[in-house]
Amino acid sequence: MLRGLASIALLIVSNVFMTLAWYGHIAFRSKTERLGMAAIVLVSWGVALFEYCFQVPANRLGSAALGGPFSIWELKVIQEVVSLVVFTLFAVLFMKSDTLRWNHAAGFLCLVLAVYFIFRK
């Protein structure tokens, strides 16, 4: 159980870095306007390095093949749900141009159903 919780916690941290690497330059465009595309890509890669520093241990801790509680399918679905939760928080807090609508909630519900079906024995 502890390995599973540690894996999920690391996935959350990893996804914070992933979201910043992928979308931070859009959310904080006033701070990155003067940078060229090459510089933005390099900064994003630098941030993404931290994503991998948490993602890889999360998957190793969580993987049933390495003594963790989750199958590779379960790990992937957990990662996707964590990714959407982190992204939703980021979008609501920092991306003022887009709003959360009913169809987004419906899509998230489908992912929750995916978790249910993936974990069903």
Give a verbal description of the structure.
By secondary structure, this protein is an all-alpha fold. It has helices spanning 2-27, 29-32, 37-62, 72-94, 102-119. Helix 1 packs antiparallel against helix 3 (37-62), helix 1 runs parallel beside helix 4 and helix 4 (72-94) runs antiparallel to helix 5.
Outline of the structure:
Helices cover 80% and strands 0% of the residues. The chain has helices spanning 2-27, 29-32, 37-62, 72-94, 102-119.
**Termini distance?**
18 Å
Strand count, sense and closure of the main sheet? none
Tell me the fraction of residues in β-strands, as a range.
under 5%
Secondary structure class reads mainly alpha
Give the strand tally.
0
Residues in helix, %: over 70%
Radius of gyration: 16 Å
What is the tally of helical segments?
Answer: 5
String of helices and strands:
HHHHH
Mean pLDDT over the residues: 90
Unreliable runs: none
Shape: flat
What brief labels describe this structure?
5 helices; flat; mainly alpha; 121 residues
In terms of topology, how is this protein built?
Layout: H1 2-27, H2 29-32, H3 37-62, H4 72-94, H5 102-119
Helix pairs in contact: 1-3, 1-4, 4-5
